[in-house]
Structures are given as structure tokens and as C-alpha cells.
């Protein structure tokens, strides 16, 4: 008869207790800033300036969101952000995976030199002005594709995917070629399905980078409101709020019929609201990507 040895000694209990305590502390440290921002964004702005807002609003209000989202440009910029995130992630991950597969094949005699040239670009680049001039010569200024094409192959992503591909048994790829599959067919039907875990991870990196990016909008498309992104619009709102309000001054005031102040906003309330607005889409997408990531790891482990 087998007996459980999970708590056979006091050392095991202490170890488990420390692990649980450490994980709970890590969860609290990770979630508290976001929960605090949520509470501040849902609290009356002038009341928040008194401090003491931790995990729940003291005076609940939606006005901070109404103030931030009242501009019609926000909704169009949200569409542009979604498009650049979806298209940019798909194109970047696919192209990076193709390059990674190419330089991972031993029959490609120049793969080491090509990989070295890629790595050098991580340490040296042309600089901001040459990059701008290059994009201008490529007619990418005031174009949506300036968000996609310059970063279509990420060197860091290529290195990660290549390392994963090199761990795939050569016999699987050789079997596909013996069955008549070409390089592209092998890549699409064999390599990509086996690379689901690393592709999911890289997709998360690329998607977060695309969603949070605003400086390229400032450089290349600041004069075209139709190509503005959510992050850039929120940055402009924050700048305008800092320029037109002090911490205790009204930026936008509504009065009721008796003439008393109903709502006010402050830079702190706008910052908290902007943080929540910019974070929620990624937070909502992440659980689906995480589920896909776990599924891909399971498939990779079984087939390996």
C-alpha cells in the first residue's frame, strides 16, 4: 500500500508554504498597480487628488472616461491601432519564421554569415535621420505601411524562432522531403505546426510592441489624422491636459442646473484613464493567446 510522501517532513511543508507565499506576493505586486489605476480612473478626479485611493473608488464616476473618449478621432485611431496590430503581427511573425527556417537549414552554406549580419544590426543601425530618409525614398511617409514594412523581419524574433526550429528532429523534415514536399511546403505543413509555442510567444511580443507604439506615428504620420493610432491620440490628450490644467485646476467642467460643479478632471485622472484604455485590449486578447500557447506546447511535447 502506497502512502503519500508529499508532507513526509517539516521541510516539505515549509518549502510549499514559502512557494505559495511567494506566488501570492508576486500576484499582489503585479496586480496592485493596475487595480489602483482602475480605481483612480473610476473615482472623482478632485477627490482623487486628496490621495488615499487604493483598490476601489471612493466617489464612483464615469466622467474621466467620458472626457477622454469624447473625441471622435479616438475611435478612428482605435481602428488604425487594431489594424496595425493584427496585420503587423501576422506579417512580421510569418516573415520572421521564413527567414528563421532558411538560416536554420544546414544545406544553406551562407547561413552563418547571414545570421551574423542580422545580429550586427542589433548593435549598429543607421540612426534616426537615415531611417527617416530611407522611408521617405520608399514613399512610406504618410502611409499605413510605414507601420508594417520597416519592422517586417525582427532579428530578435528570427533568433528565437531559429533556435526552436533547430530543436526539431531532422528526420521529420527529411521525411517530408522524401514524400515530395518542397521547402515551402515543408515549412508550411511541418515546421509551422511544430513551432506553435514559439510563434505564440513571438506573436505576443510583436502585438504588444505594435499596440504600444506611437513614436513612429509622430515621426512619419503626425500630419495625417487618418493614420493616427490610439496611443498617439492618448499621448496628445495627456500633453494637452498637462498644458491646460494644473493638478488642482479644471480642464473641463460641467455644471448642473444650480450652477454647482459636477465633474472635473486632472492630469492624474487622465493618466489613469489612458492607462486603462490602452491596456484593456491587450489584456482581453492575452487569455486567448495564452490558451493557444499552452495548446501549442502540448502538441510540440507529444510530437517531440
From TrEMBL:
The keyword Transport applies. Keywords: Cell membrane, Membrane, Transmembrane, Transmembrane helix, Transport. PROSITE patterns: ABC_TM1. Its main location: membrane. InterPro entries: MetI-like, MetI-like_sf. Belongs to the binding-protein-dependent transport system permease family. This is Carbohydrate ABC transporter permease.
